[in-house]
Amino acid sequence: MSLDTSDILPEVPLLRIVDYALDECNKSQGDRDKYWILAFRGLVDLMFDISAHPVTLRIPVQPNMTVPFPPGCISWTKIGILNNNGEISTLRINNALTTWKDLNPNRLVDLTPDITDSLPTLIQSPFYLNYFYDGVYQPLFGVGGGLIQYGDCRVDDENRVVVLQPDFKYSSILFECIYSPKRDGDYKVPLLLQECLIAFIKWKDKQGTYQEYIAAKIEARRRLPKKKFVLQKINQVIRESETMKLRG
Amino acid sequence: MAVPYNRKQLIQRIRKHMNNGFPNDAYATSDNEIMLYIDQAIAYGLVGQVWANAKVTGYMEVPDGYILTYALDPLTEDPITGEWYTNLPQPPLGLPLGYSINRIYSAQAGSGVSPDFFMIKANRVGRRANMPLSPGVRVWVKGKQIRCVAADNMPLLGIPVFVDMPTNRTADITQDMNLPDDAIEAVFDNVVQKLTQRYQQPKDIIRDNLPAGNNTLKS
Q: Can you give the residue range of the structural domain that contains B42?
């Protein structure tokens, strides 16, 4: 079945939203380019707030124990590895890790003298990361709960690279980030942002107000799939709150 | 089917009106002279009509009757700038872009009509390249010329370009006039006024339908 402009789809071209706004404001084709630029700015504004869908990518670890950001990454949301349940287990953010020479392929070589001279190495202490021992997952009895540590990382936003500890055990990491929106000739925008973007355009072109834009933004946020309240969510709350316990 | 109304007929009507009251037929104006006055009056009336309507409705709109579609000459590349250019049938009227030119697009048999080119107002051309590029072709006007660039710098060689714009000129004097009939009154009055001023010929008012003798007008 072919789709045409009358079909309501989950994503709508940015250009169509621009034309909706032109039509609503009785503007001519001479204002189309200006409105497209305003829509683009609106999209960027909404991206940092509600519009962006995080994208998860599996990225190999470089030999120097760093991982470069994917080119379209706007901001990262989660860094981890895949566990045996198919979940992302996040790495611990350790800002003590140095970003020194993190773009240099010889980073590890340059760090090695310092690592060799470090105290744990000198006293021959075993490699130990909470539940992990020698790269094998072991549920150690008596060790407190909390997050399992699969490794440490530090994010160097300036150089757009993730710095890992020198003895990081995994060959790749999962990197979840807000990615640059899809372009297929034109940008595709989630349908629920349609009226919000029109409100943004009108505000910037002095046809509407900032308050109207914010109201449209709040309304759009309420319509986000994760924010929408469905019966299954109530079930989930009940499932998670039910525990085995003594009842009086 | 209405009878077509062309510029030649309007010229004849104006000439007849002017000749009618003059004492002799030495009134000599060429068709071309009257046509220039008509062209001028149409443009003046059109622009005035658009602004007058805007005062009432709150937004601008060119009456549809003025708008014609023109197939332009093939685009040629400017080797220095890499832009593609061709000529409009006339420089656009003194209205904001979007009204002086309604739309510019490409069309050909088989593939149909393309999305509209993005028209860039003259004061935005310089800064436009520094902002995200909209999909498709950007176009701006330089006098009688339009200049086009594709977003991906694709060559536009051989692309047939069409323009919809209101015009006050006619290529052929016998071609149908593209203006709403209600505008003809204003055009006629304007041209007659200009010609009357131009020739400054007094009119003899001859009441030749009255009988001989001492006559007074009776109501």
A: 7-199
Within a domain: B113 = yes
Please give, rounded to a whole number of angstroms, the shortest distance from the CA of A37 to a CA of chain B.
7
Per the CB < 8 Å rule, is A15 touching B138? no
Of A240 and B135, the structure prediction assigns the larger pLDDT to B135
Is A30's CB within 8 Å of B96's CB? yes
Are residues A84 and A92 in contact, defined by beta-carbon separation less than 8 angstroms? no
Neighbouring CB atoms inside 10 A of A166's CB total: 16
What is the tens place of the pLDDT at every residue in A12-25?
A: 888 999 999 999 99
- Which residue on chain A is closest to B57 by alpha carbon? A26
- Nearest by CB to A29, from B98, B128, B131: name it: B98
Q: Is residue B214 part of a domain?
A: no
Q: Does B120 touch chain A (CB under 8 A)?
A: yes
pLDDT digits (tens, 9 = 90+) for B147-199: 999 987 888 888 899 999 999 888 788 888 888 888 888 999 999 998 888 87
Most B CBs within 10 Å: which of A33, A189, A206, as the mutation test of the B interface? A33
How far is B189 from chain A, CA to nearest CA, in Å? 31
Residue B18 domain-assigned?
Answer: yes
| Distance to chain B for A131, nearest Cα, Å | 49
Query: How close is the nearest chain A Cα to the Cα of B147, in Å?
Result: 15
Contact B42, B10 (CB under 8 A): no
**B4-24 burial, b if ≥16 CB within 10 A, otherwise e?**
eeebbebbeebeeebeeeeee
What are the chain A neighbours of B134 within 8 Å (beta carbons)? 15, 33, 36-37
Residue B165 placed within a domain: yes
Q: What is the tens place of the pLDDT at every residue in A39-84? A: 999 988 887 666 566 788 899 999 888 999 988 888 888 899 988 8
Per the model's pLDDT, the better-predicted residue between A138 and A205 turns out to be A205
Structurally, chain B folds into a number of domains equal to 1
Whether the CB-CB separation of B13 and B151 falls below 8 Å is answered with: no
Q: A35 Cβ partners below 8 Å, 6+ apart? A: A18, A21, A22, A27, A201, A205
Q: What is the pTM of this model?
A: 0.73
**Residue A30 and residue B99: Cβ atoms within 8 Å?**
yes
Interface check B135 vs A, CB under 8 A: yes
Q: CB of B46 within 8 A of CB of B99?
A: no
What's the DSSP call for residue A128? E
> Other C-beta atoms within 10 Å of A195: how many?
17
| Closest by Cβ to B134, choosing from A27, A31, A33 | A33
